[in-house]
């Protein structure tokens, strides 16, 4: 399994479908991408002669994103998708990348994500919650752009004294989390898959297994910035924190399902 440092050094290609992504999210999106590696390629696809992409234009230079022009030759046909897919395959064959970030809420990229993963590379998907499930599941990790926006909003709220937390980003209570049977089942299934009977496992191991079971899982969907905060709030695990064996200044969180 890769270490966090290895993930952050990964070379990534970020390919954005401008027809199915909003320009307002780009700064927060690139911050999210930086958690997984370095964006060596940043391209956004669309018909730039169209006025509906005007909101993107001031973002291109600011964030060094290369616009790829694709005319809509035929009504009803999405030539932008085809251009993005062709470029992705060209970049894949260079063998210069460790992973791809596909930014779209369109299911047309499902097969592309599967093909990239078949080559042993990681696929990070980003899209709205309305994104069809096949594309979400085709990615190693799928992040809802609404969660990225709410995280950005929460950080601004925390930085501004005297402002109250909005209802949309308020953390769900322990009772609400326990009542979410889908969430509880997911977390328990992940624990059971990696733990022997009555065994302590690390939070990192649990998080890795959760993402294998549900590529779109994100603790921010429940109002918690970190997985550890969410696990503590669910309150179905015993928790202990110990110094890291190689770095006493760092802490390792262990969990065990309560009897």
UniProtKB/TrEMBL annotation:
Gene3D superfamilies in alphabetical order: 5'-nuclease (3.40.50.1010), LOTUS domain-like (3.30.420.610)
Stored PROSITE patterns: HTH_OST
A single GO molecular function term of this UniProt record: RNA nuclease activity
Protein's name according to its UniProt entry: Maebl
Listed transmembrane segments: none
Annotated ranges, domain HTH OST-type: 182-259
Pfam families: NYN, OST-HTH
């Amino acid at each position: 399994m890769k270490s966090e440092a290895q993930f952050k050094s990964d070379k990534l290609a970020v390919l954005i479908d401008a027809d199915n992504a909003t320009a307002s999210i780009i700064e927060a999106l690139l911050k999210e991408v930086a958690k997984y590696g370095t964006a060596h390629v940043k391209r956004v696809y669309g018909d730039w002669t169209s006025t509906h992409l005007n909101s993107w234009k001031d973002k291109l230079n600011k964030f060094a994103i290369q616009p790829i022009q694709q005319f809509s030759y035929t009504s009803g046909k999405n030539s932008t998708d085809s251009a993005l897919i062709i470029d992705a395959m060209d970049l894949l064959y260079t063998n210069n990348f460790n992973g791809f970030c596909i930014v779209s809420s369109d299911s047309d990229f499902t097969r592309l994500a599967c093909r990239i993963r078949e080559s042993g590379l990681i696929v990070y998907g980003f899209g709205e919650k309305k994104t069809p499930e096949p594309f979400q599941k085709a990615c190693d990790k799928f992040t809802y752009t609404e969660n990225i926006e709410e995280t950005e909003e929460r950080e601004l709220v925390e930085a501004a004294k005297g402002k109250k937390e909005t209802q949309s980003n308020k953390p769900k209570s322990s009772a609400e989390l326990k009542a979410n049977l889908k969430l509880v089942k997911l977390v328990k299934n992940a624990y059971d898959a990696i733990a022997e009977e009555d065994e302590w496992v690390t939070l990192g191991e649990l998080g890795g297994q959760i993402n294998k079971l549900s590529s779109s899982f994100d603790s921010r969907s429940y109002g918690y910035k970190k997985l550890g905060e969410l696990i503590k709030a669910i309150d179905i695990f015993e928790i202990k924190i110990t110094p890291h064996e190689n770095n006493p200044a760092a802490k390792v969180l262990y969990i065990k399902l309560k009897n």
